[in-house]
Fold this protein.
Amino acid sequence: MLPTPTIASPMTMMEFFQKSAGVWFTQRTVHHFDAVADESGESKLYVGMVAADDPRISAICQPQGIDPANAQGGASFMWQAHDDTQDPDPDKAAVLVDVPDDASGRSGKLLRNQGYVEKIPVVSRYWFGKDGILTIDTDYDNNQGQERCWFITHDFRVRVSTVRMMNGIYLMTYCSERRWVTDADLDHMVQENASRAAS
């Protein structure tokens, strides 16, 4: 029996962003606790790194009264319907900025130019557990949200989120995400395997 590979879990937000960089195929299950249309479905998520000296970092930090020099960098997130064949619009990307509490990077503030629940600038709190699970808590104007995310393998991760609204209604979402493999990626894998088999 082959040994199970050990997964190196990211333990800082920048490590998490780096491990998340790329395109992901998302299968989403949504449960509303009231009579709301089902929002379950499939989509693609595009994650890109944002350098600490990117002008978007300052533009997000300054309105929140946070010194951009304290930011380690960030990431951009773009969502797209699974069957949409056009490239996503980068101008519509949500940008997240990492401002850690200390040098360990295990906890801190996560600044967003737009939130997931309410499309407004927001500051979240995050921390990494010893098990590598990332937890993000966000207080919006009218909602409270919590998201937890962890990697099962390098190419597969899970996200679970809950939203509590002022009237007490809850929303729960479960997402399984696998790294998107393009035709070019498959061709490269076939060539690598053929080379290994020939040697």
